[in-house]
Amino acid sequence: MTVIRRASERYVTTQPGITTWSCFSSGPNFDPDNVSFGRLITCDEHLVAPGAGFESHAHARVELVSWVLDGTLEHRDEAGRRQLIIAGAAQYQLTGTGIRHAELNASSLEPLHFVQLGLLTDEELPAYDVAAPPLTLTAGRFDVLRRCRSTRIVAPLVHLFVAIGNFHVAGHDLVSGDSVRATDAVEIDGDGELLVVTVDV
Predict the structure, then answer these.
(1) Which residues, in sequence order, are CB contacts of 100 under 8 Å at separation 6+?
(2) What is the pTM of this model?
(3) For each of the chain's 201 residues, which pLDDT tens digit applies?
């Protein structure tokens, strides 16, 4: 089964300096029929104004992957870590039983545009890394495909998100913000940046 979800179907949340488009429901946009795809519970696209960001907040029992499209993401956490993440590297955070962190636009002049994915996990110890994809997750795998020519992905659950560009999947033309949820093999053509999460069942 393959389900296409268009960019216009996402839930939109605004707060000072931040606009978020969410593929899955949560908080004020709660929809009991769209809370997860396997262990994947978050696929959020954030546009953050210069100088704005998510101040210190808590996460637990999830693993997070952040992918910067434009600008510079500044990470700060309670362990004293401060790191700048730019396009081309994935930030990975395993939250264990609990962490607190802040995610800020490092620039006072340019906007920050990034996508964050979140998957449920039972791991108890936190971990942190910034690396080029692919990334092996406790609950699956994360990768970014830029040029696809009859590329075939086989996994029990596959989530695709078009971050940039145009792709063709399962007979459908997809543009930025569109996503796919597949429970079988999918064949992909296109160019841009396609975020791929294969999810363990």
Answers:
(1) 56, 57, 58, 59, 77, 78
(2) 0.97
(3) 999 999 999 999 999 999 999 999 988 899 999 999 999 999 999 999 999 999 999 999 999 999 999 999 999 999 999 999 999 999 999 999 999 999 999 999 999 999 999 999 999 999 999 999 999 999 899 999 999 999 999 999 999 999 999 999 999 999 999 999 999 899 999 999 999 999 887
DSSP per position, 27-83: GGG--TTSS-BTTEEEEEEEEE-TT-EEEEEEE-SEEEEEEEEES-EEEEETTS-EE
Read off the amino acid at residue 15.
Answer: Q
Matching residue, tokens 């940039």: 164
Cis (ω within 30 of 0) for the bond into 134? yes
Distance between CA atoms of residues 77 and 189, nearest Å: 39
Q: Which residues contact 164 (CB under 8 A, 6 or more apart)?
A: 69, 176, 192, 193
CB 197 within 8 A of CB 141: yes
Report residue 61 as tokens.
């029992």
* Half-sphere CA count of 144, side-chain side, radius 13 A: 21
